[in-house]
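Lecture 7 notes: from sequence to structure.
We start with the chain below.
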Amino acid sequence: MAEWGQLSTEASNPASRDLDTLAPEDVVSLLLEEDRRGLDATLQHTREIARAATWAAETLAGGGKVLFAGAGTSGRLGILEAAECPPTFGTDPDDIRACIAGGREAVFAAHEGAEDVLSDGAAAAKDLGSGDLLVGISASSVTPYVVGALEAARAGGARTVLVTCAPIDETPAVADLVLALDTGPEVLTGSTRLKAGSATKAVLNAITTAAMVQLGKVYGNLMVDLRPGSAKLQDRALRIIHAAGAVSREEAERLHQAAGGEVKTAIVMARSGLGAEPARKRLRVAGGQVRKALEDPPEPEEGGANDFQK
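Predicted structure tokens for the same chain:
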């Protein structure tokens, strides 16, 4: 782009014009206040964010893949989001993935020029097709790597979302859905790892979490499909069964073992008195939704799936 300086993400913030003269406490206060302003900007887009979450839920329920694509901070945020879904929601690591300009090395060390290679982004998304979803992440909205990924995904028939912190009038029409957060200039001019990064992470969190709620991976506010791969998560799984199943800690441990480590199955067993296999069947009929499995009487499995879980 010829006029990078015209982008709002590159503009100077009047509130931080004298940043180098401020006391540390005032620098911190200003940074956090601007972060709050950035998060306020995301609240103006709840409907569009919910639409992106529904697309993600539909993609995963239909057996498709979700791919986050970004460069620099944006790429690392996508990687973080993809990496956290399997332990939190029990998803297959191959179902929600991320790619970053410059490859794996760029996760830990900056590869600034890598973001300028449009063809690399296209190559990262070349295998996406109908039924898949590409979420491009670009604070400026014009990062060539991300544009290349979006164009390739659209060409293959995949749905596309662009998460950007540029206002809509600065955003190219390269995605089916554009989340233009318009967070404004940074405290440190051009450093979009600051409030743009905070706002972007909030949006990605909202997309994945709202999608997983729709897919039945949440009961109440509990992560009932978590993978207990650590001592902390093992303890959390037992606490979830204890609370949601209204049973003692000892009974929660017994049910967890009897359910083969499946938290949702253990909860249904606790609340219904069923054995492991009948509890699993009831969950299948309910489309994986714990609440529905507990509230509705058993039905034939045909036609029992909800709108998202098949």
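Points to note: The two ends are 44 Å apart (CA to CA). The chain has eleven helices and five strands.
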